[in-house]
Amino acid sequence: QAPVWLTSVGKKRLQVHSVMADEISRVLDLWKKHGVLILDEVDMLLHPLRSELNFPIGKKEALDSTPHRWQLPIFILDAIFWARGSRQRLSTATRATENFQLAAAGLSDAEGRILKRIADVISGGVNSQKLQTLPHLILLDKNWYLETLMPAIAPWVLRWLRFNNFVITDWEKDHLLAYLQGGPSGEERYFAERKNRGLSKIPSIQASHEAYRRKMLNLGHEWLTS
């Protein structure tokens, strides 16, 4: 029953809304009891040439490199959010990374130094208009990223790879960073620099690391450069 203070127009609106609520209730009840799938834009979904509808069948199988294949990009994004002022503890995926050193009050000294460098580079990028901050952090100059920000993020990625045993223990840091940032061609440039300095030849990543390790090194390279 309508409140006594409601006007005649208000009473009519209340009556209309009451009918609408009853009909919506029936629709929701129909979905709940007999619904199988809710499809939006059904004309496009059922179009034989444009449909992206995909119903996998068969036994469920874990994706290759599960769960590290998604923990790595989350780990990288954590560094960006941290550098932008999110000083709360890092995400669950990062904190759950095996053997990753997180003190109760924050990060270890080594991790803190890496993040401080990333924060300084991002701050400089904003000031030099290589990045914009609204509506969120947006890259404006890809060359600046490749030359300046990527070298700051690469040690963060390498730290994750080391803690998860995806690189051989005590393998030369500069070699791994060269591969992460440049892939096989970056590794070749690194070998050329060693030769110019008169240093002895060392094995390549391909020759020294097992397939599962190479996969994650290549994934790190892809995330850093794409």
Spell out the blueprint of helices and strands.
Elements: H1 8-34, H2 42-45, H3 68-83, H4 92-95, E1 102-103, E2 106-107, H5 109-127, E3 131-132, E4 138-139, H6 142-163, H7 173-196, H8 205-208, H9 211-225
Report on the structure:
It is built from nine helices and four strands, in the order ααααββαββαααα. It is mainly α and 226 residues long. The chain has a two-stranded antiparallel sheet with strand order 1-2. Helix 3 (68-83) runs parallel beside helix 9 (211-225), helix 6 crosses helix 7 (173-196) and helix 6 (142-163) runs antiparallel to helix 9 (211-225). It starts with 7 loop residues before the first helix and ends with a helix. 18% of the residues are buried. Residues 98-105 have low confidence and may be disordered.
